[in-house]
Amino acid sequence: MKKIRDINILMSLSVYVCAIGLVVITQTEGISYGYEIKGFEKTLESIINFSAIIIGFYTAMYGVLLTLKNSDIFQNFKFHNAEKIVKFQLYESLISSFLILILSIALQILINYINPFTNFICAIWLGTLFVFVVSTFRAISLLLKIMFNHSGKEQEASVLGESKQARYDSFKKKQEDK
C-alpha cells in the first residue's frame, strides 16, 4: 500500500509542477493569455457551469459516502491505511473546484480591465484549470469505484491473497466490535 501512496504523492506533485510551469510559461508570454483567444468569455461561462455541477456532484456524493462508511471498501481503506489518500484526493478536487469557480468569475470582470494583475490572474487561472481537470478526474474515478464496489468474499480472497485474508477478517471483526 505504501507503493500506491507514493504513486499518489508523485502524481499530485507532478500535477502541481505542471500547473506552476503553465503559470510561469504564461507569465513569460510563452502561451498567450486566455482572454486574447476568441470566445474566451463563453469558455469562462462553460467552466463556471461545469465547476458548479462538479461541486454539486461532490456534495451529493459526500452524503452517500457517509452511508457507506461501514462498507467493505472503507474497511479495506482502513486496513491498508489508505484513508488519508482518499481524503486528500477528495479535498484537493473540492478546493480546486472552488478555486476555478472563483477565478473564472473574477476573470469575467477583469477581462474588461487588461493590466498586469489581470495577466497574473489569467496565468493562475490556467494553472488552476489544469489542476482542476486532473483532480476532478481522479476524484470522480475514486468515487465511482467506491460507489460501484461489489466485493464478495471470492474477490477479497483473490485481491488480498490467502495469507492476508485471515488478517483482514480479524481486522474487520475488530472494526465491527467497536
UniProtKB/TrEMBL annotation:
Keywords: Membrane, Transmembrane, Transmembrane helix
Highest taxon of the lineage: Bacteria
Transmembrane region(s): 7-27, 47-68, 89-111, 117-144
Protein name as catalogued: Uncharacterized protein
